[in-house]
Write a structure and sequence with these properties.
This protein is an all-alpha fold. It has one domain (2-294). The chain contains twelve helices and no strands. The model has no long low-confidence stretch (mean pLDDT 82).
């Protein structure tokens, strides 16, 4: 039974990271819209879709979550963390810093592994330790080669790393927890939209029809990968989630280089090759563990 749960967990997180990897293309289509407007639309449409779905299925737990101080405090924190993560990512994409955003999501798994070992007391095999050392070395090398502190990368890494840890340890169903987070952020998002309409001369309907549809779609592209990620994180180790997370930034990196012609130097090729060698070792270690469990 546990084996089936693990497989389901792998599928969930792989789906989430692949979708996150290709989302840069989606956000690029909305580059003509300001960063703050985009993030507020993302919050508003996510809130409306989640609230409607839970109202129909009669599974809303907002009041229950709010009355439980432990759950309330945890999800207030994750709401703040995910808002920061969304905002910085959208800024990075629109500022042509997709490669730096990709580096951030390469650092995130290190944060996940660190949190998994230190806080959740998850154990690492020798192969996993070697893989972790390789990745750490590659990230340090890449950061030094950049010649400046990649603040975007580190904000993305730590905001999402702690988001994943808190969501894994909070015993609240996935959709209600996501709904609570967007409910907390909704007043701020709506307030910004009202301000823009009154003083900035901008409104939702002032955009072209394609942009309007894409803005509404931000709710779907936000909810789906977060739903998959949260479900997957509950079923498998946080350290394993961390290594599978390299799928997203690798796709993001390839898109930045081959679709949007962002620079990709020799030192970056070396670093990312080492990272993928480490991923290969980690996956090999997982396969060996599964074989031993079956014997």
């Amino acid at each position: 039974m546990k084996g089936k749960s693990n497989i389901k967990g792998y599928i969930y997180v792989i789906q989430a990271f692949i979708m996150w990897g290709v989302l840069a293309v989606y956000w690029k289509q909305l580059k003509h819209i300001g960063d703050w407007e985009l993030i507020t639309h993302r919050i508003i449409w996510s809130f409306l879709m989640l609230t409607a779905f839970l109202a129909i299925t009669k599974k809303s737990q907002i009041k229950t979550i709010w009355l439980n101080s432990k759950h309330r405090n945890a999800l207030l924190t994750t709401a703040a963390l995910i808002a920061v993560n969304w905002g910085v990512f959208i800024y990075a994409v629109n500022a042509d810093k997709i490669v730096q955003a990709g580096l951030g999501y390469y650092i995130t798994p290190l944060v996940n592994v660190f949190l998994g070992v230190v806080i959740l007391k998850e154990r690492l095999t020798k192969l996993k330790i070697i893989a972790l050392a390789l990745v750490s070395g590659a990230i340090i090398f890449l950061t030094i080669q950049l010649g400046y502190f990649p603040y975007i990368s580190f904000v993305l890494a730590f905001s999402f790393g702690f988001y994943g840890l808190i969501k894994k340890t909070t015993k609240v169903e996935t959709l209600p927890s996501l709904t609570f987070e967007t409910t907390v952020l909704f007043p701020f998002a709506l307030g910004y939209q009202v301000y823009m309409h009154m003083y900035g001369g901008m409104s939702f309907t002032s955009h072209d029809s394609i942009s309007i549809l894409l803005l509404i779609g931000t709710g779907i592209i936000t909810i789906l990968p977060l739903y998959w990620f949260t479900n997957g994180a509950k079923l498998i180790n946080l350290t394993t989630v961390g290594f599978f997370q390299y799928l997203g930034p690798t796709i993001m990196l390839l898109i930045g280089v081959f679709v949007y012609n962002e620079p990709f130097k020799t030192n970056e090729i070396i670093a990312f090759s080492i990272i993928w060698l480490a991923i290969g070792l980690y996956i090999y270690s997982l396969v060996n563990e599964d074989k031993k469990k079956k014997i």
